[in-house]
Amino acid sequence: MSETMQEASVQDVQERSVIDRSVRYPVLFFFTAAAGWLFLATLLGFASSLKLAAPELWDACPWLGYGRLFPAHMDALIYGWGMQAGFGVMIWLMARLCRVEVKNATTLIVAGNVWNVAVLVGVLSVWGGYGTSMPWIYFPAFLWPALFLSYSVISGTLLMMFKRRRGGEAYVSQKYIFGAALWFPWIYATANLILHHTGGSAVMDAGVNAWFMNNLIYFWFIPVGLSSAYYIIPKIVGRPIYSYQLAQVGFWALAVLAGWTGFNRFLGGPFPSWMPAIGGAASILILIPVAAVAVNFLGTMAGRTSLMHYSPSLRFTVFGGIMFNLYGVFIALSSYFDVSRYLQFSYATVGFDILIIYGFFSMVIFGAIYFIVPRITECEWPSGKLIRFHFWYTSYGIITIIVFMIAAGLAQGGAINDWSGDFMDSVRRGNGYVVALAIAWALISMANLAFYYQLLLMFFGWGRKTEGPTLIHKKPGEAMSAEAAAGFAKEETA
Amino acid sequence: MKTEFSRFILGLTAAFALPWLLLIVLPYYQLSTIEPELYSEEDEVDAAASYPPAWTGASSDGESVYASSGCIYCHTQMVRPTYAGVDMWRKGWGGNEEDGLARETRPQDYSGDSYAMLGYMRIGQDLANVGTRHTDRAWYHLKLYNARTQVVDSNMPSYKNLYRKRLIDGQVSDNALKLEGRFAVEEGYEVIPTEKAEALVDYLLSRKMDAKIPGQGVEKEVAAASTDK
């Protein structure tokens, strides 16, 4: 927090570059591996939506059926890309904010390899017909301990960094990361133990599954995404966060409410009716932390929004922030029976999941990656043009997905609710929109190819070299010039 | 500083632990230990029967085929009460209407499954009671082999991998699929279901979630659905 305020001393700059060097390999490892998964995930997204639009395509090949492509797509997106890219951001941010070096870089990379191998085996199993069909817990039962262990090593490192931190009170980003590190193993172990290893109520299994999905969103994706946004926005506009109190309120309100959600994915389902009801109520109350975030970000950026034209990090982050608010509103709305009767189980379900995982989380993480990678590789992104390409194709794609999936949901849900009509009406009405879904994923895949290409160049040290010590942008590139203008270059060179 | 740190951890833990305990652990235990109920005379059901009904036949193989084929992304198995949707008004979704058994689904209905396939999306019909709507095995096999054989613009994927094409050995097998028009296979060949396909059809035929509820007349049940909330 104080970082944004004070002029950094020479000592600070040196200290930072030592820290950056200590996290360099694990963070780069996670980013690059994640970007590879991302490309695969979006291709699978494209293929699975194509299958909806043209169901007889590749008919003879069971690997290319919708029922396998879709879970493989979500797996690659969540575990291959999302969580892994999140690890990189968490590690870098935690080191930077706690002002501590990472001493166990090798262990982290080993853990990262275990994670990748486990995800690879998992995706191939799902693809090959050994999936469990339990949403987001698609991997066969024997894999979860490997993922759990690997995560525990990473989260243990993060928790220890926080404990060793230097400087005063913890900034809200650190708290979010700490929370995500602590909560996830608990959620993951609970869900997997119940779903794989106990023979209890089949219905509760499905409920626990839905709870797991929502907890992964509210206790992991949202905290990690917000931790990055709370860092990037003040950093680039060059002023402290608008209200620290508000950030605190937002943090605790989310923490207290999030755990109650999940069963509202099954409003009217075969549960004691208080369970979905409390999930719905919590989802509506979550508008409070959502509003806190919105006010804080707007307040921080007031008058300096034009920086978005130049800074890729800020632009991606702000886009993500907007999507976060939209998600909050949509989920609150769909907690009402009058809305859920149409949208529950419709295409909108996928639309909302993509909205939060891609529209919010991934966009914010892209922003963070554009910020972090030059600092740890000591070179600049090769092409501002490709960054713009990445941004625009991704945003068009995401907006298309969300708009069309909600429209499809309304068309489809509306037809199902017209109980006197033919059921096939709902299928026919949904079909047109599915074509848009396929086109959107194709756009996003192209964008991600550009992103992956640039990241690989950076990985191999083929970025544009700058003069002088780390972090100093004496010769700012096209895309970085605004960041320099925005003040942090000044702050870091001082 | 130290105490502040422990207070922070305590806060995070408490925020998580409370819903974890009250929403997951306790209800899980509670719902896992529901005892079957016996019917009374008023229910007019066979004396030996209980609710939930004892499951017959091995549908668990079928359940795993259902799972690995990803039917859950397009099919729900959950009939909502009328306050939450019109599922009950769609013919056959709530079960056997002629005998007045149609109702929304309850936790006990899934007691024979290892995981209740409640669903993710509803691109195809709800399958909670598909076993009461359709009883012909050949119909299921055609649907799974290629849904377009029955519904021209269905977007349900084909599950041809669950079927085998082979040379006709003397006479056409009894269980061969009756494929016509553009779906027909070459002269001299036939398509027969594999074990997996049969298991899946067993599972689908077992989807009958309209058993009478002990102590509740059928009419009362419908009333209960609307005041449940």
Polypeptide structure, described:
Chain A is built from 17 helices and two strands. Chain A has helices at residues 2-5, 10-53, 66-98, 105-130, 144-163, 172-197, 202-237, 244-258, 274-285, 287-301, 312-333, 337-343, 347-377, 384-417, 424-459, 481-485, 488-493, and strands at 379-380, 464-465. Chain A is globular, with a radius of gyration of 22 Å. In chain A, helix 2 runs parallel beside helix 4 (105-130). Chain A has a domain at 10-168. Chain B is mostly helical and 229 residues long. Chain B has a domain at 1-32. Chain B is 33% helix and 6% strand. In chain B, helix 2 (60-69) packs across helix 5 (195-205) and helix 4 (137-145) crosses helix 5. Chains A and B meet through helix 2, helix 3, helix 6, helix 7 and helix 8 of A and helix 1 and helix 2 of B.
Give the % helix of chain A. over 70%
- Terminal Cα separation of chain A, in Å? 18 Å
Inertia-based shape of chain B = globular
Give the strand content of chain B.
5-15%
Largest interface: which pair? A-B, 84 and 74 residues
Distance between the termini of chain B: 48 Å
Low-confidence stretches of chain A: 1-6, 467-494
Number of strands of chain A: 2
Percent of sequence in beta strands of chain A: under 5%
Overall pLDDT confidence of chain A: 88
Assembly state (oligomeric): heterodimer
The topology string of helices and strands of chain B comes to HEEHHHEEHH
Q: Name the strands of the widest sheet of chain B in spatial order.
A: 1-2
Basic shape of chain A: globular
Averaged pLDDT of chain B: 85
Going by helix content, strand content and strand pairing, the class of chain A is mainly alpha
Largest sheet of chain B, in brief, is: 2 strands, antiparallel
Quick one: biggest sheet of chain A? 2 strands, antiparallel
In what order do the strands lie side by side in the largest sheet of chain A?
A: 1-2
